[in-house]
């Protein structure tokens, strides 16, 4: 074997080794980066929440666009009013609206000064999950966080609501709703929006087909939160795994 061929084989072997290591490390590194990104978004949201709900008159004015320093641009009062109005508008339409069209945004958040598209965030301590919530269960938004399903209630602490939030399972390089199946009845889930934190407890888990939608409808007098993710139906397709929660306060 001449020296050139030997050197070429060594270089090729090294490249294979490096590629193999990169492939092995991609998933855990990507997951950790995803967690860091979600944590950063949530921390910025908490800063914004604190700023817009600070009643002190001498709160400093914003200087840097797109962060907590631009918090005072968020019109919380108008956003809350619009969210309540939206929820009330669903009461006469449950069961008749196009429940297959969950991908649209329930509200235009930019209209209320929210520039990053984040309505709030959801956290489930039992499975160490914290994710930002975006409006519209479409592929783009579900690739970066949890997504509110249009035509279902927004997460506001009011009766006659069923807020439905979707998240991926098995999305390459990220962990979203992958661990929902580990949740048990009684586990707490919190949803924080720009003016309040709504606390729910798990009351049931179930599997439905992709054609069923009854569990996304409002139940009179209830304050519900329904989380949805995909699960294999062992036939080459996917069913839907639901975690159904209720706020009884």
Explain what the structure shows.
The structure is a single chain. By secondary structure, the chain is α+β, with helices and mostly antiparallel strands. The protein has a single domain (34-246), classed as Beta Barrel (Sortase, Chain: A), CATH 2.40.260.10. Helix content is 28%, strand content 24%. The protein has helices spanning 3-52, 76-90, 139-142, and strands spanning 118-124, 129-135, 146-148, 161-166, 188-192, 197-208, 223-232, 238-246. Strands 1-2-3-4-7-8-6-5 form an 8-stranded mixed barrel. It starts with a helix and ends with a strand. 31% of the residues are buried. The model is unreliable at 20-27 and 61-69 (pLDDT under 50).
Write the layout of secondary structure elements.
Layout: H1 3-52, H2 76-90, E1 118-124, E2 129-135, H3 139-142, E3 146-148, E4 161-166, E5 188-192, E6 197-208, E7 223-232, E8 238-246
